[in-house]
Write a structure and sequence with these properties.
mainly alpha
Length: 91
């Protein structure tokens, strides 16, 4: 039962981190002429019709990577904290 709760907590932590990071995606970004040209070229090269769709997918991928890195950092810090707690001598 405790294992299930830990796994559910980890899943909820990752989903929460992802939603927090995805909340800050600049959806209404105004591009300069050069940026718009670059996004159009890349979207044509990849075969997407709208460069804003590509922009959204790129940012969601970046936010997923950020959430994964934050999750890994939190888990490592938690393990480090737990090992210090266990190794601490009791009086």
């Amino acid at each position: 039962m405790a294992t299930l709760v830990r796994r559910l907590f980890k899943v909820a932590l990752f989903i929460g981190l992802f939603f927090i990071s995805a909340r800050y995606i600049p959806l209404s970004n105004e591009w300069t002429e050069g940026e718009a040209h670059a996004w159009w070229r890349v979207s044509d090269w990849l075969g997407t019709r709208d460069p804003e769709d590509l922009y959204f997918v790129v940012w969601m991928t970046i936010e997923l990577i950020v959430a994964a890195l934050a999750y890994v950092a939190i888990m490592k810090l938690w393990r480090h904290y737990r090992t210090k707690q266990i190794k601490a001598p009791t009086a």
